[in-house]
Write a structure and sequence with these properties.
By secondary structure, this protein is of the alpha/beta class. The chain folds into 2 domains: 256 residues, Metallo-beta-lactamase, Chain A, CATH 3.60.15; 41 residues, no CATH class. The protein is 22% helix and 26% strand. The protein is built from 10 helices and 18 strands. Strand 5, helix 4 and strand 6 form a beta-alpha-beta unit. The longest helix is centred in the first third of the chain and has 12 residues. 41% of the residues are buried. The C terminus is likely disordered. Bound molecules: zinc ion (ZN).
């Protein structure tokens, strides 16, 4: 039941010897989602042993080079490795034009279909399957083009049947799916048995939010309310707050403020300016506002465990 984030790159516009440009992988059960794809991402995928042929969905937050310059290389490698399955890309629609231009110029064809999903400027669900949804939401980093954050959120699971109770009430097997969906049971004599007596509630859903390059806005906390894990860019520290404002970036303290207002579980700071050889210097200003804050390093892995109940039973 994995819900695990691997940081592939936590640098910003200029990569350093220690920090790659923006990229990360979220694994949810057997699914691998690539989020941003800065230069060198395919090297990082290899380095941190991510099975990148299993990546079927790539989310690009915006068209600044540190978030997508690694894409054409990765797409080419996948083709050389005989990938055949469709690859879905969620991005500003102009990325499609750019990739097609590059491929045409190279007289190159990929051996698998690329499926583009255009991101707009409204909050919307852009991906959904049996297990989770991905919602894109607009941030404030470029005026001329959309910039999106992403919220990955598990769907509510079914309730679990309390076998000793269903035995006692002689609930037929054919009704078990109804019970798992929360319906009450009515006995042949007409007595209604509340669902809560026959089932346990499911474990809480898990969520991860990715806040890419953005100016701080208090209202953005609404997009990521209650996220268990929140990654927020912290390009600068408080001493460079004016610079953060003019470049449409955030400081570590602003990231912490947002995490606090959103009621997040844990805050991860990343997208550090190359001016900080050791971004640990940004930690104090964040922790004073939001104690459960960590500084990301390339290769870090953060898991959100499934919160099990002691009396949790599955039928
Ligand atoms: Zn950036």
């Amino acid at each position: 039941m994995k819900f695990e984030l691997t940081i592939l790159g936590c640098g910003s516009a200029v990569p350093t010897s220690k920090r790659n440009c923006a990229a990360q992988v979220l694994q949810v059960l057997e699914r691998y989602f690539l989020i941003d794809c800065g230069e060198g991402t395919q090297h990082q995928l290899r380095r941190f042993r991510i099975p990148y042929n299993k990546i079927n969905h790539i989310f690009i937050s915006h068209l600044h080079g540190d978030h997508f310059f690694g894409l054409i290389g990765l797409l080419s490698t996948l083709s050389l490795q005989n990938r055949r399955g469709a690859l879905h890309i969620y991005a500003d629609s102009r990325l499609q034009e750019l990739l097609e231009f590059q491929l045409n110029l190279l007289h190159s064809r990929l051996g698998y279909p690329l499926v583009f999903h255009s991101l707009g400027r409204e909050e919307e669900v852009i991906y959904e399957d049996r297990v989770l949804t991905v919602t894109a939401f607009p941030l404030l980093h470029r005026k001329e083009a959309p910039v999106s954050g992403f919220l990955f959120r598990e769907k509510e699971r079914e309730r679990s049947v309390r076998k000793e109770m269903t035995d006692a009430w002689q609930v037929p097997v054919s009704f078990m799916q109804h019970l798992k969906r929360g319906e009450d049971f009515v006995t042949p004599e007409g007595e209604r048995v509340p669902n809560e007596r026959l089932t346990f509630p499911p474990p809480p859903v898990r969520s991860y939010a990715y806040m890419t390059d953005t100016l701080y806005r208090e209202t953005f906390a609404e997009y990521v309310k209650g996220a268990d894990l929140l990654y927020h860019e912290a390009t600068y520290g408080k001493e460079a707050e004016a610079l953060a404002r003019t470049t449409f970036h955030s400081t570590a303290g602003q990231a912490a403020l947002l995490a606090r207002n959103a009621g997040a579980g844990k805050l991860l700071l990343g997208h550090f300016s190359a001016r900080y050889p050791d971004p640990a210097c940004l930690l104090p200003e964040a922790r004073v506002l939001f104690p459960d804050t960590e500084i990301c390093t390339d290769g870090d892995v953060f898991s959100v465990p499934l919160k099990k109940r002691s009396n949790f039973l599955s039928f």
